[in-house]
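Researcher: Please generate the 3D structure of the following complex. Treat every line as part of one assembly.
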Amino acid sequence: MGRPRRTRQTPSQTVGPFFGMALGREGDEVLVDDDTPGERIRLEGRLLDGNGDPVEDGLVELWQADASGRYRHPLDDWDPPPSTGDARGFTGFGRCPTAFETGAWAFDTIRPGAVADPAGGMQAPHLNLVVQARGMLDALFTRVYLDDEPANEADRVLQSVPAERRATLVATRQDGDDPPTFVLDLHLQGPDETVFLDV
Amino acid sequence: MASDRVGSGDDVRRAHDDHPPFRYPDYKSTMARSPERDMVTVLRTLSERTGPGPAWSAVEDDDADLTTNAGTGGRAIGARIVVTGRVLDAHGAPVPDTLVEIWQANAAGRYTHWRETEYDAPLDPNFLGVGQCHTDADGIYEFLTIRPGPYPWGNHPNAWRPAHVHLSLLGPALGSRLVTQLYFAGDPMLELDPIYCSAPPHSRHRMLAHYDHDVSVENWATGWRFDIVLAGEHATPGERQDD
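Model: Done. Output below.
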């Protein structure tokens, strides 16, 4: 069966330094409210450049499944609710501009459930990130796994990453925090460069 | 068949040769912010093939008139323009449920951002320069705004950004995420701009809005057409392949 010839894609351009006007709304880094089912977690880190300096004008976006491993999406048998506005609930999406002095970002969310792997079985619970910044001409995609998940050992995507770079995708649980905090710095360049995914 | 078109999705991945390179020396800020290692190619799963567009569109109100959305009761100063177009997937099919967010400088080339301090151009109290809308079932979006002015930046001596509107597209697939800039066809400053020129010559034209007389509104606003082609394909639930 013939396949349509691919249309040229519109080129990406940098978000520049002023995206916060539109994409930096306070509160979008909190995905949960009192009614959200699931285990509360905090995911945080810094966005760093190739010199190890903080990226002070970056944007980190999060997309994840809910506690039962379902995405809020028609492909996962979800239909948009008829009402709009106040009753946001859990959408699975969050945004956090990096802090100007430190490059820090953080999300208050829930531990995602496992999502099916089209190659068979289940994927380990993971959170999907999109990273952009002034000085980045295209978006970068990566995943965050949680270091207390035994399923990581069998996750096809994580295991396909060279072993010496795998740690760049795994957030570390901190002792004693409630709710638990997982930490992962994102490195755009350098010896600890984050593994970015071609999606 | 759906099964022919879903699966690994190699033909609808982000076509890196249509996009700028991460490292582009003429745009100095890219030098320390560009990855140097190879990306890892993944089989597209629900994590990549779903995205926040449908859910986010359900909770975000339209706010597509930038000439009045400052809420002051006054109108923004500048040449009113209608910007409209279709959002298409890599096969040319329309993409609904996409949140289109825009931000831009005012007619004088000034942003309402706290960081904008060097360029002594006037602010317009009736213009925020921020708007959003959703694509409809045919992938169509539309804004009413004012034509932005060019402004200087610090990349090199006497550097000016050509007039542009920033667009963010958040659609049904995370892998289709796109932030780009709309430029105006015929602008003589384009060829001097390293950000515009960072895109490969064969795809730069995709960033140009063209005057469209059919879009112009008599005695009100000139019309500009800007279609956007995303990576990925707009899969419907009937094409689901993951279970």
